[in-house]
Write a structure and sequence with these properties.
- It is built from 11 helices and 11 strands.
- By secondary structure, it is an alpha/beta fold.
- Helices cover 45% and strands 17% of the residues.
- A 6-stranded mixed sheet has the order 2-1-3-10-4-11, with helices on both faces. A 5-stranded mixed sheet has the order 7-6-8-5-9.
Length: 330
C-alpha cells in the first residue's frame, strides 16, 4: 500500500514537472518571436504603392525585431491569390499580408471567394492612406474643375469616360462613387493595370481617371495632367493646392484608399501585439515617413481592434455600392 502511494506521488510529481516544463517551453517560444525571417505577401505586382509600403516598413520592422522581412509578390485575381495563400498559412506570425480596399470590396464582387476577409484573418494595423486624384488631360481646356466635369456630364449623358486599372480597384470605385453621388452618367473603361489606362488618358483616348496620387503626381508636376480633386475627406499633403471632391462640388464624397496588415486567423495575440507595436514604431520613423511622403502615402497606424472595425464598416459600405452600380467581374 505504501509502495502504491509512493508510486502515485512520483507519477503526480513527474506530470507536474512535465506540465511546468511545457508551459515554460511555450512561454519561451512565444517570447522568442521572431526567431527566423517573416514573409510578407504583397498580392499585387512589384512597383506600386502597396509594394513600396511593404518594403519600406519591412526594412524598418526588421531592425526593430532583429529579423528580416521578405516581401513576396503573389499577384492575380484582384489580390485574391495572395490573400488566399495567407488565409491558409500557419498562424504563427511568420506569414503576413498587406491588403487594400479590395479586402472589403472582393466579397461583394466574387461569388466564389475562397476566404472570408473578416473570419480568416487576424488584423494587425492600418498602415497608410494613398489618396486617389481626379485628373484630366490639360489639352481639354473646357474642364478645369469638378463643377465643370459634372456640368458637361449632365449635358451629355454617357458621352464622357473614366479609365481604371480594372474592375473593383480603388480607381474604379472612386469613379463609380462619383457617378452615383454627383448623379451623372459616365462610361467606365477598365484596363489591365493603371499603366495602360494612364497611357490612354495622356493620349486623349479617355477623358478622366481617378488615379492613385503615387503614379499621377509626376505627370501633374510635369504639366501632362490637370489635377481636379482628391478623393479623401481632407486635402493631401502631396498636393495641398488641390481641393477634395467634397469641397469641389460633391458634398459628403470620400474614398480613402487604405493599406493594412493582416496575419492568418489564430495567430497568438502576443505575436499580433508585437507586430502591431513594431509597425506603429516604424510608421513614426522619420526615414519611413519621408519615403511614404515621396509616394503620397500618409501614415495611419492604430490597434488591431480599430482595423477590425474599419474593415467591417468598409465591407458593408462597398457591398451597397457594388449592388447599386451593378458592378460585376467579367
Amino acid at each position: 500500500m505504501n509502495l502504491q502511494r509512493t508510486l502515485a506521488r512520483l507519477v503526480r510529481a513527474s506530470l507536474g514537472a512535465a506540465l511546468l516544463a511545457g508551459a515554460a517551453g511555450a512561454h519561451a517560444q512565444a517570447g522568442a518571436y521572431p526567431d527566423h525571417p517573416v514573409k510578407w505577401i504583397v498580392p499585387f505586382p512589384p512597383g506600386g504603392a502597396m509594394d513600396s509600403i511593404a518594403r519600406t516598413l519591412g526594412e524598418a520592422m526588421g531592425k526593430e525585431l532583429n529579423t528580416s522581412f521578405i516581401v513576396e509578390n503573389r499577384a492575380g485575381a484582384g489580390g485574391n491569390i495572395g490573400s488566399s495563400a495567407v488565409a491558409r498559412a500557419k498562424p504563427d506570425g511568420y506569414t503576413l499580408l498587406i491588403a487594400a480596399n479590395g479586402m472589403a470590396v472582393n466579397p461583394a464582387l466574387y461569388k466564389d471567394l475562397n476566404y472570408d476577409p473578416i473570419k480568416d484573418f487576424a488584423p494587425i494595423s492600418l498602415l497608410a492612406v494613398v489618396p486617389n486624384v481626379l485628373v484630366a488631360n490639360p489639352a481639354r481646356n473646357d474642364v478645369k474643375s469638378v463643377a465643370e466635369v459634372i456640368e458637361k456630364a449632365r449635358a451629355q449623358p454617357n458621352h464622357y469616360t473614366f479609365a481604371s486599372a480594372g474592375v473593383g480597384t480603388s480607381i474604379h470605385l472612386a469613379g463609380e462613387l462619383f457617378v452615383s453621388m454627383a448623379k451623372v452618367d459616365m462610361l467606365h473603361v477598365p484596363y489591365k493595370g493603371s499603366g495602360p489606362a494612364m497611357a490612354d488618358l495622356l493620349g486623349g483616348q479617355v477623358d478622366y481617371m481617378f488615379d492613385s496620387i503615387t503614379s499621377a503626381k509626376p505627370h501633374i508636376e510635369a504639366g501632362k495632367l490637370r489635377a481636379l480633386a482628391v478623393t479623401t475627406s481632407k486635402r493631401s499633403a502631396a498636393l495641398p493646392g488641390v481641393p477634395t471632391v467634397a469641397e469641389a462640388g460633391v458634398p459628403g464624397y470620400e474614398l480613402m484608399p487604405w493599406f493594412a496588415a493582416f496575419a492568418p486567423a489564430g495567430t497568438p495575440p502576443e505575436v499580433v501585439a508585437r507586430l502591431n507595436a513594431a509597425m506603429r514604431k516604424a510608421l513614426a520613423d522619420p526615414k519611413v515617413k519621408n519615403t511614404l511622403d515621396s509616394i503620397g502615402a500618409e501614415p495611419i497606424g492604430g490597434s488591431p481592434e480599430e482595423l477590425r472595425d474599419h474593415l467591417a464598416r468598409e465591407t458593408a459600405q462597398w457591398k451597397v455600392l457594388v449592388k447599386e452600380r451593378n458592378i460585376k467581374i467579367n
